[in-house]
Amino acid sequence: MLSLSPINLKNIFTSLAIASVFFISALSNAQSSRSSTSGDEIWLGTYDQMLERGLIRVAVPYDRTIYINDKGVPRGLAVNMAQVFESWTNTKNAGEGKNKVSVKLIPIARAELFTALSSGKADIVIGNLGVNQSLPYSNEFLLNHAFRFNREVLISGPSSINVENIHDLSGQTVYGGPNINFDSTLQPLNKALNKAGKAPVNLISPLGVLDDEDLLEMVDAGLIPFVIIADWKAKLWQPIYKNLQIHNDIYADDLGWVGSAVRSSNADLNAELSEFYRTDKFNNALDAFHEQEYKDHAKGLKDPVEKAAWARFESMRLLFDKYGTEYKIDPLFIASLGFQETLLNQNAVSKVGAVGVMQLMPATGNALGVGDIHLLEPNIHAGADYMNQLITKYFPNINFAGKNRAIFAVASYNIGPNNVAKARDLAKQQGFDPDQWFGNVEFAAAEHMGYEPMVYVRNVYKYFISYELKLKKIQSIQP
């Protein structure tokens, strides 16, 4: 047990954005019977009219913890929330002779949530409102704080030092998601450390485009030592990532909020939601996350920079640099893909006959004409050439910005360029940016192909980030 004063704790970490929580359709028979009511339906009704027609439409954002469509199977915390709310509503109204109500999911791109509500495509929107977009300050909506999560906590893992008090963080590196404002969180701590003649905390946020789930997995695998995250999410994933240690005594007030919004004409619906949020059923639903749904997808990260793995990388580094430069692909992405495929093992042969570090079929190697891919240099050459062709041949008219060229090449390497093209088309239909993989096309790919492509590409990206950290290509932020 740590003996830290609340004042010191509050100076440590404040204001990690809360991830979105809530409702999704349970895909019940009642919903199936109403399949004619699509997410494009425009309907502006009162709460009584919703009850009369037996349908409440809830728009939710795509989110890896909250909602994802895994090849037609809805997964995430919101599934449980919808089931509980639907049951609670029907139980409450059972004695009033009202129709049985179905809560229907309308998954939507985060930026379109309030547009869907305003236009009548949804009756409620739920999520981390105000975190990733500005709240509409107008009389058009009623905003409702569903639950105040009071803490953001320090999480450590197998590569962390033992932390007994906040000063033990001196000289350590702490990571956070894109929504942490380090200028107002760790600045007081670092000022105190400087005054005491101690090294400040090294701050890195954001870490590329990694999200909270990525950071937790990297801490669990020992790839990074510390992360700051909302305690509810840490507790949600701790049964899966068993190496995490939650420092409940090193925390700060979380100023973010999770909640809902309805049209201002639906004050009675807003009151109903407020009543639901105060029930034990609501709180219990937070603990009903079906972790087994994700265990099958958690492949377990390896450490690309531990001594033996780093030695393999160093022995191949000149080749990654050579062919990365030739094909205009960041060499570290080629290395990361090779590490994902074989842990940089040139002797690896798959069950179907794929060969070497980059796991290419001999026929593919022959077609590329770069030499015998059973040898190291031709194998890496072929892998880089193939990654380049996956973009130049199949997406010739698309100028993928930044790292997206390499990321889409990795995705195509995994599921094939035709499936990536289909995912891009679906993403565009769903309101996502078809030229951005993370947070956009990856969700459409999961719906089209299952969760595996998302895990695969994110693993490769985490290895890429690990290489960049090792090579000091990512610098800390000192508030």
SS-based class: alpha/beta
CATH class of the largest domain: Mainly Alpha
Count of distinct structural domains: 3
β content, as a range? Answer: 5-15%
Uncertain stretches: 1-38
**Spatial extent as radius of gyration:** 24 Å
The count of DSSP E runs of length 2 or more, i.e. the number of strands, is: 12
* SS field, number of helical segments: 20
**In CATH terms, what is the fold-level topology of the largest domain?**
Lysozyme
The percent range for helix content is 40-55%
Corresponding CATH architecture of the largest domain: Orthogonal Bundle
Q: What separation lies between the terminal Cα atoms?
A: 29 Å
Question: For the largest beta sheet, what order do the strands appear in spatially?
Answer: 4-1-5-12-6
The largest β sheet comes out as: 5 strands, mixed
Mean of residue pLDDT?
A: 83
Task: Name the shape in a single word.
Answer: globular
Q: Topology, pairings included?
A:
Elements: H1 6-12, H2 29-32, H3 47-53, E1 55-61, E2 68-70, E3 73-75, H4 77-93, E4 102-108, H5 113-119, E5 124-127, E6 141-147, E7 151-156, E8 173-176, H6 182-185, H7 187-195, E9 202-204, H8 212-221, E10 226-230, H9 231-237, E11 245-253, E12 258-263, H10 267-277, H11 280-285, H12 292-295, H13 307-326, H14 331-342, H15 362-368, H16 376-392, H17 404-415, H18 417-429, H19 437-449, H20 452-470
Parallel strand pairs: 1-4, 1-5, 8-9, 8-10
Antiparallel strand pairs: 2-3, 5-12, 6-12, 7-10, 7-11
Helix pairs in contact: 13-14, 13-16, 14-20, 16-17, 17-18, 17-20, 18-19, 19-20
